Amino acid sequence: MTGAPLIEVEDLRIDLDDGSRRVAAAEGISFRIDRGETFGLVGESGCGKSITALALIGLLRPPLSIGGGVIRFEGKEIQHLSAARQRDLRGNRIAMIFQEPMTALNPVSPVGRQIAEMFVLHKGKSWREANKLAVEALASVRVPAPERRVNDYPHQLSGGMRQRVMIAIALACGPDLLIADEPTTALDVTVQAEIIELMRNLCAERGTAILMISHDLGLVANVCRRVAVMYAGRIVEERGSADIFRAPSHPYTQGLVDSLPRLGSRAALGRSRLKEIAGVVPAITSFPDGCRFNPRCARATDICRTVAPTAEWLEAGGLVRCHHHA
Amino acid sequence: MKLRANLIIGGALFALAILVGLLAPWLAHTDPVLDANLMNAEEPPSWTWWFGTDDQGRDIYSRVVYGARVSLTVGIVSQLINSVIGVALGLSAGYWGGWWDDVVNALTNLMLAIPSLIFALAIMAVLGPGLTSLLIALGLTNWSFTCRIARASALSLKSQGYVQAATVLGYGDVRIMITQLLPNMLGPIVVIGTLGMGSAVLSEAALSFLGLGVRPPFPSWGSMLSDARDQITTAPWLSVFPGLAIFLTVLGLNLLGDGLRDILDPQSRSRRT
């Protein structure tokens, strides 16, 4: 088992069946995450980052389906496992937290019970034991007075507290991989920082790998060691997170980095406009030929409009998918 | 505190009806069946005969007290059967969808197309009269509304974040249905259930009237009401008191359902504390 990455995705394609034809909502997705590593997946809405996560945990539902490629967990293919075996992985080995802590908890069940259920479900504990473990789990995400809080219902908790509870549920069974899909989008900035800090510390303590999905390049680069940028269903660049800010290679990544406001910059002081990327993301059904970024790209030439670029290794480490990368 | 008043009044009325049924032998003044005396026939309500007497001189008060047993048994048990069937079918159909949903929908439409009383009559005709067949007949014919409600709730609930979260956390289908969907749809199910109990009490009356319910001379509110039909102008107390008993029981059940819905919703629970 040692040596094999925790999770490895190879040339994954996700099909969208719109009734008459199948189109690839995401294709050529390859990445690997090692044990205890932090990996970020960044892109605009609809670029395919969330469905990639769903594919990992076997929860793509029609009209979406896996159209090709391989997903390996600890070296074993998991995309063809039976529903029951996939269910054993979910929550136990691979856990996930969502964007909306407001709706991700069952409103009619006390939060302690919802944490305890994970121990009953995956670890075969009795309810008595599970309830004790739930108090500990709540304490570990630094919820004050956990022995009283376990009896609270979700609506009695603030957004930040709920996301802490979600983290407690997700980490209850000591998973190897935590998928965080926009975990802090619904929270305000100070709470966001606390939650991110908490998530990072807990995962580092327990050796849990994180796959973080977000549209916020700054946030992801802050949390993750490596970052992959997705555009229109393809990974366009994958780099160490320091490199991606210092020397973005793909024109799209450069656009993203340039459009981030920085403290003290001319734009932040209001003296110049923030840069933007012209145009909009194409719809899944009408991806352009060649490089999918070509209609919005300043460097686009004829080859970009006809030939899809392949992934190239960069000397500085990392991958890029562009004919004219920097 | 309107919420509480619902629960207290409704609960009290329902509890009273159940108590009366349970304590019937001690509460009744006379035997409801055997103490017929034509000398006392058609007495209006008085200190001796609280609710008056019928044309055979039987004490209406005692008969109403004993009638609670039949009416409540039929109301509660048959509605429980209905709720279990309706929730099991509707919940699974809404959650799973696909061919199972089609089957359940067809079945529900079939049940809604046949008047439930006629269907119950057919079942009674096969099983023969009596309390057990009454329970089965009414328990099998009124689940379609519960089923519709459960299916609609399951459809809307299954896209909720917490249901998807449960899927992601490795919950199985049955566990999701029981721990995530069912508790969240309990409010409307309880309300439909209490309404259903009321209508089961009325259906029992109709079937008893047709001679398919509890055999006369043993009293049920429904059969008493039917018997009193001819004398409604000459001896109105014969219909008023069993009618009042049905009315108060059904009212109590509805208020109770309302009150229960309020405490089953945790948001209104904390509003009070």
In short:
The complex is a heterodimer of chains A (326) and B (273). Chain A is of the alpha/beta class. Helices cover 32% and strands 22% of the residues of chain A.
Could you give the topology of this structure?
The complex is a heterodimer of chains A (326) and B (273).
Chain A: E1 7-17, E2 22-33, E3 38-42, H1 49-56, E4 64-73, E5 76-77, H2 83-89, E6 94-97, H3 111-123, H4 127-140, H5 146-149, H6 159-171, E7 177-181, H7 189-206, E8 209-214, H8 217-223, E9 226-231, E10 234-240, H9 241-246, H10 251-258, H11 302-306, E11 312-313, E12 319-320
Parallel strand pairs in A: 3-8, 3-9, 6-7, 7-8
Antiparallel strand pairs in A: 1-2, 1-4, 4-5, 9-10, 10-12, 11-12
Chain B: H1 2-22, H2 24-27, H3 60-96, H4 98-113, H5 116-127, H6 131-141, H7 144-157, H8 161-168, H9 173-209, H10 221-228, H11 237-264, H12 266-272
Keyword list:
heterodimer; A: 326 residues; alpha/beta; 4-stranded antiparallel β-sheet; 12 strands; 22% strand; B: 273 residues; mainly alpha; MetI-like fold; elongated
Question: Any overview of this molecule?
Answer:
The complex is a heterodimer of chains A (326) and B (273). By secondary structure, chain A is α/β, with parallel strands linked by helices. Chain A has eleven helices and twelve strands. In chain A, helix 3 crosses helix 4, helix 3 packs parallel to helix 6 and helix 4 (127-140) crosses helix 6 (159-171). In chain A, 43% of the residues are buried. With 273 residues, chain B is mostly helical. Chain B has a single domain (2-29, 49-272), classed as Orthogonal Bundle (MetI-like fold), CATH 1.10.3720.10. Chain B is 74% helix and 0% strand. Chain B is built from twelve helices and no strands. Chain B has helices spanning 2-22, 24-27, 60-96, 98-113, 116-127, 131-141, 144-157, 161-168, 173-209, 221-228, 237-264, 266-272. Chain B is elongated. At the A-B interface, helix 2, helix 3 and helix 6 of A face helix 8, helix 9 and helix 12 of B.
